[in-house]
Each structure stands twice: as structure tokens, then as C-alpha cells.
Amino acid sequence: MKPEICTTLTLDNYLKYGDRKVPGRISLFVNSPNAETYFVPIDTEHIVLAKYLVAKSYARILSDLVPVHIDTKMDGGEPCITGIITGASGMEIGYGVRHSLDELQRAHGRGKELVMMAHLYHTEPLNENVIRRYMIKKVA
């Protein structure tokens, strides 16, 4: 498995990575220290790709990898980006991986940047959601 870096969202990307678990969804990982962004293949769980990225030194630790989902719908035969969801995947839910607010915001910003640069059109306004349920809890 060689991870594919996402530098832009295109129809080819959509055809290869779209419809991951949810119709129209493209799942990504943003490596929070450097904003490098990887596609999550349709048939691969987040935790499997995350462990691979850490084992091969693409990322330092699991919590550096923040999930970002780009949601689309078909409009006139073309995919239209409708939303961005950041911070939740099976990795956070099942393995207790947590992210800082700063990591979540930077990953979400990277998702928005990809949408704005996309070779797919998007709706205005986008449906945006940063899932804070899996944030690192501050100790008082």
C-alpha cells in the first residue's frame, strides 16, 4: 500500500476515492505537523492506513493524523462538494485517539483549502462541522 497524497480534488479523485462508506464521501487524513494530506482508500479503515503511515514514517504518531471528510452529491451528472466534516473516524471512536483544538482547526482549514482549489464545484455555503467530541481534554 502506497499512500496517495491529495493536492487537489478532481473528478478522477472522486471516481477513485468517492463513496467511501457514505454516498459521495471522500475521506482524507491531514498530517497536522506539515498539512500533508492523504486519501483514505474506499476499502481501507482509517486505523489501518494510520498505522501504516506511522510505521513507514509518513507521520510521527496516530494523533498527528486528523480525519477530514469531503461530502459531495451528484448535480447534473457532476459531483458537487457540499460539506466538510473534521475530526471523527473509527480511529477516534474505537482507539481513543484524540486531537488538540489547534490540530482540528488546521486540518479543517486544509480541507477548506482543498475545496476552494478543487476542480469540482462546491455549494455556498458549505455544510461544515468540526467534531470536538474527540478533542484532548484540558486538565484543570
Task: Please provide a written account of the structure.
- The chain has 140 residues and is α+β, with helices and mostly antiparallel strands.
- It has one domain (11-130): 3-Layer(aba) Sandwich (Severin).
- The protein has helices spanning 11-17, 46-55, 90-95, 101-117; strands at 25-31, 37-39, 65-75, 78-86, 121-130.
- Strands 2-1-3-4-5 form a 5-stranded mixed sheet.
- It is globular and about 40 Å long.
- The termini are far apart.
- The mean pLDDT is 90.
Query: Strand-residue fraction?
Result: 25-35%
Helical element count? 4
Which stretches of 5+ consecutive residues score pLDDT under 50?
Answer: none
How many structural domains does the protein architecture include?
1
Record the strand order, biggest sheet: 2-1-3-4-5
Roughly what is the average pLDDT, rounded to an integer? Answer: 90
The CATH class assignment is Alpha Beta
Oligomer: single chain
* CATH architectural category: 3-Layer(aba) Sandwich
The CATH topology is: Severin
Helix residue percentage: 25-40%
Summary keywords:
single chain, 140 residues, alpha+beta, Severin, five-stranded mixed sheet
Compact overview of the structure:
By secondary structure, this protein is an alpha+beta fold.
Fold blueprint:
Layout lengths: L10 H7 L7 E7 L5 E3 L6 H10 L9 E11 L2 E9 L3 H6 L5 H17 L3 E10 L10
Parallel strand pairs: 4-5
Antiparallel strand pairs: 1-2, 1-3, 3-4
